[in-house]
Design a protein that fits this description.
This protein is mainly β. 5% of the residues lie in helices and 49% in strands. Strand 5 and strand 6 form a beta hairpin.
């Protein structure tokens, strides 16, 4: 069992930055490929970024490339998402997930409902 708790969401103006954290308890974070998903009102949950369990290789959805950075600190059992140059269309509830995939790309290609563990989400609102 893995318990995931997100934090760091909030209200920010367009162009601003936020750093999300995902703290894990239970099994060690290093055994999972970790990722961030988001869900905007009325839309399906979508992949944002992932970091592989072994080499820490990252993978991003195209719209966040160059703006978001995913990282993990296995010693602290915590994953992060640094979000810069935020846009109103980034507004969503952001969820962290742990998955059995061996790479971030593989995680991105699996249906979101197939992820092994989810956090409860943190709301990010980007105003104009």
């Amino acid at each position: 069992q893995v318990q995931l708790v997100e934090s760091g969401g909030g209200l920010v103006q367009a162009g601003g930055s936020l750093r999300l954290s995902c703290a894990a308890s239970g099994r060690t974070l290093s055994t999972w490929t970790m990722g961030w998903f988001r869900q905007a009102p009325g839309r399906e949950r979508e992949f944002v970024a992932a970091i592989s369990r072994n080499a820490g290789i990252t993978y991003y959805e195209d719209s966040v490339k160059g703006r978001f950075t995913i990282s993990r600190d296995n010693a602290k059992n915590t994953m992060y998402l640094q979000m810069n140059s935020l846009k109103p269309e980034d507004t969503a509830v952001y969820y962290c997930a742990a998955d059995r995939s061996t790479t971030g790309q593989a995680m991105a290609e699996r249906p979101y409902y197939a992820m092994d563990y989810w956090g409860k989400g943190t709301l990010v609102t980007v105003s104009t």
